[in-house]
Amino acid sequence: MSVPLLDVNAQNLPLEAELKQVFENVLRSGRFILGEEVEAFEKECAAALGAKHAISISSGTDALIIALMALGIGPGDEVLCPSFTFFATAGSVHRTGATPVFCDVTTDCFGIDLESAKAKLTSKTKAIIPVHLFGQSSEMDAITSFAKEHGLKIIEDVAQSFGSTYRGRACGTIGEIGSFSFFPSKNLGGFGDGGLVTTESFELCEKMLRLRNHGMHPRYYHSMVGGNFRMDALQCALLRVKLHHIGEYAAGRTRNANYYSRRLSKISGEELILPNDRDHAGHVWNQYTLRVPGRRDELKAHLTEKGIGCEIYYPVPMHRQECFANLPEHSLSNCPISDQLASEVVSIPVYPELVEAQLDEVATAIESFFP
């Protein structure tokens, strides 16, 4: 039996009738930009996350960009971010004219290593972007204390972790701004690109509302230069349907992750390192990421041959990317754990609609690889 890494139809098609009805409602309304569906989705997201303010944005990448813009980050500024992450984290910093400074990460949660961040702090450092990677939070208490001590703003990259928590508090509500993605593979996966920003600050909320609509308020009056960062009303309406199921989606991912952890624990060790599930961090398992020192590519080939979907997130850390080769030396140096993880990690199917027979197929394929 082949098992795909992700099957969006397994989640979306059971909702087909409701999604079609929502589409028809928006079609007949004739309101495709902003409006009631957008406002309702934002209120429901804020309630689900326990955030004071939530604003829908055109993509997860644009959510990071607008967050940086709202905090006044630009040319001459430096922003600390992990090297082991998806490109958008660093690319968004670069697009504002600021300089991404790549820090190493920890092996327990793949989050930014604060000792590395401390070593790379300069007088130009204005912000830090902790990434809650693969569905699990970074160590936000230490990051918050560090940021407060040095006057840094915190932008949480929650693209992969909608609904995750840190010590009972939703990720995305701890720093100044949280940035989310609704790319179809995410825990709350949309029907194209989409994103969200959250904040506890009324002032930042008002600023981002203007920035997402060309800096305009009132109409045709521009006190700042923004962009077209709006999310379509149709996308918001469709996502509202799926938001009502986010609890069961999270439970399904947790169930599947627990199955793997139980099943694979007997071969876990130096050859196969299972992901951590820390007690104080509510993991939502966007990915179930194994570490396979020395044999990762062999295992990936083995799984592929057996029809098991798998992927490497990520094979090249940011400090090794060609487009950043001309950054200052301190931006690119001393990220050995990021290099190590890039050579070890492979993610296996964990989406909530997997049935036990599929989980068994994946686990059996992995077991057959190890003596």
Automatic annotation (TrEMBL):
One Pfam match: DegT_DnrJ_EryC1
Class of enzymatic activity (EC top level): transferase
SUPFAM superfamilies linked to this entry: PLP-dependent transferases
Top-level taxon of origin: Bacteria
Keywords of this entry: Aminotransferase, Pyridoxal phosphate, Transferase
GO molecular function, one term: transaminase activity
The protein's Enzyme Commission number: 2.6.1.-
Keyword Transferase recorded: yes
Statement: the UniProt record of this protein carries the keyword Lipid metabolism: no
Family assignment from sequence similarity: Belongs to the DegT/DnrJ/EryC1 family.
Name of the protein this chain belongs to: DegT/DnrJ/EryC1/StrS family aminotransferase
Lineage: Bacteria, Pseudomonadati, Verrucomicrobiota, Verrucomicrobiia, Verrucomicrobiales
